[in-house]
Structure formats: C-alpha cells, structure tokens
Amino acid sequence: MLHFVKYDLMMPTWGAILGFLFIIPLFYAVMFPLFFIFVSCVLAITVGLFYSDQREKSKLYMSSLPVNRVSIVRGRYVSILMVSICFVLYQSIWGRILSLTLENNYYVYSWKNMLVLLCIAILIEVVAIPIYYGLSSFIMATGNLAFLFFLSIIFILPPLTNVLGMEYEIIFNDLDPGFVLLVEKYIPFQPYVTVSLVTATLFYLSLKLSELLFVKKAKVS
C-alpha cells in the first residue's frame, strides 16, 4: 500500500504543488473564506488524481499486475488524507504568521477547527472516491460530484448563517467560525469525539465499498 501512497503523492506536477503553496497564503491574506479554500484544494487534489488515472490508464495498468488490488484503493484514501492534513497544517501556520505580521483580524485555527476540517476532508473522500470507482465515465463522475458539492452548499448555508446570527446578510469572509458552532449545537454531548467516531466509521464503510467497486471494474476491464 505504501508504494501506491507514494505514487499518488508524486503524481501532481511541480506547477500544481507550487500553485497550492502560493494560492493558500494569497487567499488567506485577502481574507477569503478559509473553509472554501480548504475544500477547493481537497476537491482539486481528488479530481486531479482521478483525472490522471483516466488520462494515463495507470490504475488499470497497475490492476493488471500481480499486486493486491485492494492496496491500490487503500493507497488512494491514505494519500488524499495525508494531503488534507498537510493543507490544514499549512493554513494554520499561515494564519498565525499573518495574524502576527499584519494588522487585519485574521481567523486562526484552533484544534477544534482543524479537527472539523479534517472530518470534512474525510467526508469528501467518503463520497467522491466511490463515485469515481463506481462510474466508468470520468466526466459523469465529476459532474455528479460537482452537483453534490453545490447541493451541500445550499443545505449548509441556512444553519450556518443562523448559528452565526446573520439574519439579514451573509458575510462569506466571516463564515469560518460557524462550522465549530454547528458541531457543538447539533451534537451537545462530546461533540468532537462523536463526530470523529462517525467520520471514521463512514471512512471505513466507504473504503470497503470502493474496494468492491474497483475490484469489480478491474475484472470487467
């Protein structure tokens, strides 16, 4: 599995890596919503990896080799999770740097924010990876993922603005604190333990589903 994790981590080009390293602090500096930056980066990495699979037929080639096909799927889950952790830490570091060097009131991550963002990243994996392994068309899978993404925004905005007291206007740059407040509002007992356990369970179930879908697709191919 470690071989496939390494393969996925080496797949993005240096241009893409430098782009992420530049875009994150730039958007942070102009006080763009941190949640949107993070989710966009995780989605971009996820879609980019499957686009590379589609373009190079790499996963089909590897599945034809005498290797454990389950390890290919597990490597994909672990690699995206590792990149997501790096994104969270990178954003947190830049938040502290900018809050100390500039006068603007930059939002700095607490451990609660970091945990919630990581859970969101895992939920993106939980939904996105089975879609790509289940559908043969990359375009159709990406279209479904985009539809679910915009649908989730529509559903999350009302409770998010409500918990922040934005009854008359929505200030997108001030939405970031609301995610922690939502978790604490709707999960009153041990919210962070509960959300971690639920997310871990969904991660495991999604992993098993993706393993079945990928093995089935590899046999058909």
UniProtKB/TrEMBL annotation:
<protein>
    <recommendedName>
        <fullName>ABC-2 family transporter protein</fullName>
    </recommendedName>
</protein>
<dbReference type="Pfam" id="PF13346">
    <property type="entry name" value="ABC2_membrane_5"/>
</dbReference>
<feature type="transmembrane region" description="Helical">
    <location>
        <begin position="73"/>
        <end position="94"/>
    </location>
</feature>
<keyword id="KW-0812">Transmembrane</keyword>
<keyword id="KW-0472">Membrane</keyword>
<feature type="transmembrane region" description="Helical">
    <location>
        <begin position="186"/>
        <end position="207"/>
    </location>
</feature>
<feature type="transmembrane region" description="Helical">
    <location>
        <begin position="34"/>
        <end position="52"/>
    </location>
</feature>
<dbReference type="InterPro" id="IPR025699">
    <property type="entry name" value="ABC2_memb-like"/>
</dbReference>
<feature type="transmembrane region" description="Helical">
    <location>
        <begin position="145"/>
        <end position="166"/>
    </location>
</feature>
<keyword id="KW-1133">Transmembrane helix</keyword>
<feature type="transmembrane region" description="Helical">
    <location>
        <begin position="114"/>
        <end position="133"/>
    </location>
</feature>
